[in-house]
TrEMBL record:
<comment type="similarity">
    <text>Belongs to the cytidylate kinase family. Type 1 subfamily.</text>
</comment>
<keyword id="KW-0067">ATP-binding</keyword>
<dbReference type="Pfam" id="PF02224">
    <property type="entry name" value="Cytidylate_kin"/>
</dbReference>
<dbReference type="InterPro" id="IPR011994">
    <property type="entry name" value="Cytidylate_kinase_dom"/>
</dbReference>
<feature type="domain" description="Cytidylate kinase">
    <location>
        <begin position="6"/>
        <end position="223"/>
    </location>
</feature>
<keyword id="KW-0808">Transferase</keyword>
<dbReference type="InterPro" id="IPR027417">
    <property type="entry name" value="P-loop_NTPase"/>
</dbReference>
<keyword id="KW-0547">Nucleotide-binding</keyword>
<protein>
    <recommendedName>
        <fullName>Cytidylate kinase</fullName>
        <ecNumber>2.7.4.25</ecNumber>
    </recommendedName>
</protein>
<keyword id="KW-0963">Cytoplasm</keyword>
<dbReference type="GO" id="GO:0016301">
    <property type="term" value="F:kinase activity"/>
</dbReference>
<keyword id="KW-0418">Kinase</keyword>
<dbReference type="InterPro" id="IPR003136">
    <property type="entry name" value="Cytidylate_kin"/>
</dbReference>
<feature type="binding site">
    <location>
        <begin position="10"/>
        <end position="18"/>
    </location>
    <ligand>
        <name>ATP</name>
    </ligand>
</feature>
Amino acid sequence: MKKITIAIDGYSSTGKSTLAKQLAKHLGYVYVDTGAMYRAVTFFAMQHHYVSENHLDKNKLIESLPDLHLHFEFNPDLGFAEMFLNGKNVETEIRTLEVSRLVSKIAEISEVRSKLVEQQQQMGKHKAIVMDGRDIGTVVFPNAELKIFMTASPETRAQRRFDELVDKGQHVTYQDVLQNVMERDYIDTHREDSPLVKAADAIEVDNSAMTRKQQFQLVLSLVDEKVIA
């Protein structure tokens, strides 16, 4: 069966990672969560006091990039790969609202994007890969056989994110999460380097009223079309 590259882009909290994990597991493909990579760089910058709500030391972060090493390790108990930063598992730390508030600032930095895009392209050299993010179909894999662009209303996405954070025991308000979602949308779509845009050949999936199962079945049918073609 033909192996393809599947690029999933879209707004924050549209369930890109959930869908990508489902597809990778079903197809036996490699899954790469590029959002986790940007979150890990953000967490690194926070640890070193390069970034905060009102501060960004861009030059210091750029100078530190050679000292920043990212890799994924598959966790068989969880069924997906976790993010490691300089040898330490940071999967829990990178999923906080604090990191969410700052990640778009870090993702705007061209030198950060360049470093991560190079790594992502290396990971996808042999196809049979599902990758999700903001610029996968436009920058990382412009020749991907299947490109999906995911969207949903800000309110729907905020509710999903709020429920997820509360389930993890984090103390947040829905209003704070909604504000974060809308701020990230603005930053992601207005940054100079690789803004979030739908690739011309991407298929848009609005999952505002879809269940995860319905979404999975829809996209799997699109994969089948490409694999059989």
